[in-house]
UniProtKB/TrEMBL annotation:
Function of the molecule: Catalyzes the attachment of tryptophan to tRNA(Trp).
Catalytic activity: tRNA(Trp) + L-tryptophan + ATP = L-tryptophyl-tRNA(Trp) + AMP + diphosphate + H(+)
Lineage: superkingdom: Bacteria
Subunit text: Homodimer.
Gene that specifies this protein: trpS
Keyword field: Aminoacyl-tRNA synthetase, ATP-binding, Cytoplasm, Ligase, Nucleotide-binding, Protein biosynthesis
Class in the EC hierarchy, top level: ligase
The family this protein is said to belong to: Belongs to the class-I aminoacyl-tRNA synthetase family.
GO-annotated molecular function: ATP binding; tryptophan-tRNA ligase activity
Name this protein carries in UniProt: Tryptophan--tRNA ligase
A Gene Ontology biological process term: tryptophanyl-tRNA aminoacylation
């Protein structure tokens, strides 16, 4: 049996990954790369929708590459590359935009969330067509599985719809992908506002654990996580979102179920519980932080890895792009 093709990506839109990206995506990627033929991209074309400074973007691309590798992605066996190095992505987005309904694109909740504050008039068109570019990313690689957090589910569903529509209209061209979303870590919440997902676009970063935060800062952020006054430690997302989120995080870092952990820590008080969460998080993240900083000391080597992998990605992506173009009557 051939191995499943795995595809996923993250935006280089901040100076570091956060705990949500790590637990919701990266930990699953590194597991899946063992079972499949994996492509992991740094989606810099997507990040252009929010970053205007070229120096910042370039630096963040390298930082993200270093974090992928330090976090366990093996750039020898998995294809770790930068989206803009493969021109087929931009071309495929155009082809797919032709079969995407305006109303369909308007229903994407991330677009609605991202434009809620400043209004639709202030948004760029790229932010609107963003999910189409993402659909192209996935379809270009004949992807079977897309490991992502819950916030990307709707985009993967759009990808499936577009792939099926294209196949129906122009003949079998694309593999139809499945999202792979791990229930317990699908949505890590902000430590200061556990009713909102942890997100780089939050107003303050007090509730965000960055993978490049110093361990002492991580400890402080977790100790000050917002909980409640009832004192018990149990899973109850509605009434105890803070405690439930911390249980989810501890579960992700220990491999134990939230129910088991709730049993163990209930009655010990929030202070003890939070220190246990911080210890588990820091125990895993501190070496990743150090390795990232080491890798960033040698940017030429990072660039070399990214360039070599881009050549491999181009081969696969160009073949699919040309297939789609021919199906549509181009070329
Ligand atoms: P991005 O860069 O916002 O997030 C990267 C990954 O992290 C997951 N994630 C979370 N998981 C759990 N809890 C959270 N609080 C949390 N925040 C983020 C996301 O679900 C994602 O898996 N559009 C995508 C990038 C993209 C992509 C793709 C992904 C572009 N092309 C093709 C997969 C396949 C995005 O903005 O992810």
């Amino acid at each position: 049996m051939t191995k499943p093709r795995i595809y996923s990506g993250m935006q280089p839109s901040s100076g570091s990954l956060h705990l949500g990206n790590f637990v919701g995506a990266l930990t699953h990627w590194r597991q899946l790369q063992e079972e499949g033929d994996a492509f992991f991209s740094i989606v810099d074309l997507h990040a252009l929708t929010s970053i205007q400074d070229p120096k910042v973007l370039r630096q963040q691309v390298r930082t993200l590459a270093a974090q992928y590798i330090a976090g366990g992605i093996d750039p020898q066996s998995s294809c770790l590359y930068v989206q803009s190095h493969v021109s087929a992505h931009a071309e495929m987005a155009w082809l797919l935009s032709i079969i995407t309904g305006f109303g369909e694109a308007s229903r994407m909740t991330q677009f609605k969330d991202k434009t809620a504050k400043k209004g639709i008039e202030a948004a760029n068109v790229g932010l609107f067509t963003y999910p189409i570019l993402m659909a192209g990313d996935i379809l270009l690689y004949d992807t079977n599985l897309v490991p992502v957090g819950a916030d990307q589910k709707q985009h993967v569903e759009l990808t499936r719809d577009l792939g099926e529509r294209f196949n129906k209209r122009y003949g079998e061209t694309f593999t139809i992908p499945q999202p792979r979303i791990a229930a317990e870590t699908a949505r890590i919440m902000d430590l200061q506002d556990p009713t909102r997902k942890m997100s780089k676009s939050a107003e303050t970063d007090k509730g965000i654990v960055w993978l490049l935060d110093e361990p002492s800062r991580t400890l402080k952020k977790i100790k000050s996580a917002v909980t409640d006054t009832d004192g018990s430690i149990r899973v109850d997302a509605e009434n105890k979102p803070g405690v439930t989120n911390l249980l989810g995080i501890l579960s992700a870092f220990t491999g134990r179920t939230t129910a088991e952990l709730a049993d163990e820590y209930d009655g010990q008080g929030y202070g003890v519980f939070k220190v246990a969460v911080a210890d588990a998080v820091i125990g895993e993240l501190a070496p990743i932080r150090e390795r990232t900083l080491e890798l960033l000391d040698d940017p030429a080597e990072l660039d070399r890895i990214l360039e070599a992998n881009a050549a491999r990605a181009r081969e696969v992506a160009d073949a699919t792009l040309h297939r789609a173009m021919r199906a549509m009557g181009l070329r």
